[in-house]
């Protein structure tokens, strides 16, 4: 297929999305008008929703692909964050950035306006907003890159799963930022595992133990809503706790290796080191057991302690051997006598953050439907969420019970003066989950 034929195929692919959004029948299903705009020239138009560090990084990676892309719209709740990202991205990519002031949207509903102007959207706000943003992008028939996690509670996961089914019907490419799925050593070694290299998986361990992340102290002028959104990592309606926001990467590997999701989860956690009011409501350590339908158990551990030995990797045991994996290009298979039988040693292991964008935009440019990550991403996020439910409550939580839970953490109203559901006491301290007392579902 020559370049002109590829361009024609891409134009048809993008026009089809626009027609679907306008209510034209596709595969027997009609959809309401979402006000979508679609490129019909050689340029793929993208919109960035969420202009923090990860959003800026996602825009860098998208604009670094080989395809003819242009950033045409941006949205964020905060104008300062948007303008900072715009400056950084435009300085790097110049003519690939065409976002005049009238296409820089600020506020809680800004995402809808930016989505309408693009062919592909990058969703990178704090994860509590992801279900609504994903649903809107699907309703407007856009191809999507969305960061993990895709939700922070059971109602959010159900919303993502419902939108994922519509995205499949519309043949919208969706990539979720669980980037180990796009990393060569993981792809290579896990294929060997699933081909039987170490037999049936009987157990394993996954880790994300580190010193923790940033803190943004309260400023006197901030409302409670602004403070929580600026300091989003420490509030579950926005973040989901670090077992969900960060450790989901390793939990996703457990599910990938098992080719399944756990039927129940139990565990323990606490606030042992990060105990002050700057740390909101979340725990600083979680240790959980993921039990799968075949009776196998994967142990999951994450913590945010300063001065500790860091560990971020995964290992699994099978009936014929074991495996060790890490994001540092490692992938080793051993037999039952601890003899090395395979070592992934290729030096060609491109940055997976870049690879996920390279592959997404290559498919879109060719007019291909190749990626439907949303369901898989939602179920791995649900696994991590159930881990939080288990550590907060001290109970064994079953998958089916958790998925049905009506326990939305999201505020009843979004405005700068509205009150989130969780509020501090007179000393500025937030209620902390207490196992045996806290009810989660």
UniProtKB/TrEMBL annotation:
UniProt superkingdom: Bacteria
SUPFAM superfamilies: Glyceraldehyde-3-phosphate dehydrogenase-like, C-terminal domain, NAD(P)-binding Rossmann-fold domains
Limits of the GFO/IDH/MocA-like oxidoreductase domain: 186-323
Gene3D superfamilies: Dihydrodipicolinate Reductase, domain 2, NAD(P)-binding Rossmann-like Domain
InterPro entries: Gfo/Idh/MocA-like_OxRdtase_N, Gfo/Idh/MocA_oxidrdct_glycsds, GFO_IDH_MocA-like_dom, NAD(P)-bd_dom_sf, TAT_signal
Domain Gfo/Idh/MocA-like oxidoreductase N-terminal residues, every copy: 44-167
Signal peptide: none
One Pfam family recorded for the sequence: GFO_IDH_MocA
Protein name, per record: Gfo/Idh/MocA family oxidoreductase
């Amino acid at each position: 297929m020559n370049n002109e034929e590829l361009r024609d195929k891409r134009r048809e692919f993008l026009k089809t999305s626009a027609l679907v959004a306008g209510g034209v029948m596709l595969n027997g299903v009609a959809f309401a008008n979402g006000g979508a705009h679609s490129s019909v020239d050689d340029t793929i138009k993208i919109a960035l929703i969420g202009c923090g560090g990860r959003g800026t990084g996602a825009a860098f990676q998208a604009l670094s692909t080989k395809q003819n892309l242009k950033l045409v719209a941006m949205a964020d709740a905060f104008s300062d964050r948007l303008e900072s990202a715009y400056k950084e991205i435009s300085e790097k990519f110049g003519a690939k950035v065409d976002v005049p002031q009238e296409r820089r949207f600020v506020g809680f509903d800004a995402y809808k306006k930016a989505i309408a102007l693009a062919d592909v959207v990058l969703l990178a706000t704090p994860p509590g907003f992801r279900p609504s943003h994903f649903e809107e992008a699907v309703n407007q028939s856009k191809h999507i890159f969305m960061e993990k996690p895709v939700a922070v509670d059971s109602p959010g996961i159900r919303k993502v799963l419902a939108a994922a089914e519509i995205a499949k019907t519309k043949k919208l490419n969706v990539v979720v930022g669980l980037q180990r799925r796009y990393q060569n050593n993981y792809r290579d070694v896990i294929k060997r595992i699933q081909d039987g290299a170490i037999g049936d998986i009987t157990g394993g361990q996954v880790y994300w133990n580190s010193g923790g992340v940033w803190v943004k102290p309260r400023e006197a002028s901030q409302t409670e809503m602004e403070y929580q959104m600026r300091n989003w990592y420490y509030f579950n309606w926005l973040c989901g706790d670090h077992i969900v926001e960060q450790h989901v990467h390793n939990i996703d590997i457990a599910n990938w290796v098992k080719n399944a999701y756990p039927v129940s989860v139990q565990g323990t956690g606490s606030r042992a080191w990060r105990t002050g009011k700057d740390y909101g409501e979340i725990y600083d350590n979680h240790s959980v057991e993921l039990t799968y339908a075949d009776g196998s158990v994967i142990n999951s551990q994450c913590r945010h302690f300063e001065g500790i030995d860091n560990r971020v990797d995964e290992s699994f045991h099978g009936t014929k051997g074991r495996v060790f994996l890490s994001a540092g290009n490692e992938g080793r298979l051993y037999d039952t006598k601890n003899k090395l039988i395979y070592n992934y040693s290729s030096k060609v292991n491109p940055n997976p953050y870049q690879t996920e964008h390279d592959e997404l935009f290559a498919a879109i440019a060719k007019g291909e439907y190749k990626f439907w990550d949303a369901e898989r991403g939602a179920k791995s996020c649900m696994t991590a969420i159930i881990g939080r439910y288990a550590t907060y409550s001290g109970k064994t939580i079953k998958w089916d019970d958790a998925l049905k839970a009506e326990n939305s953490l999201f505020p009843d109203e979004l405005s700068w003066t509205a009150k989130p559901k969780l509020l501090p006491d007179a000393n500025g301290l937030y209620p902390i989950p207490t196992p045996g007392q806290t009810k989660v579902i």
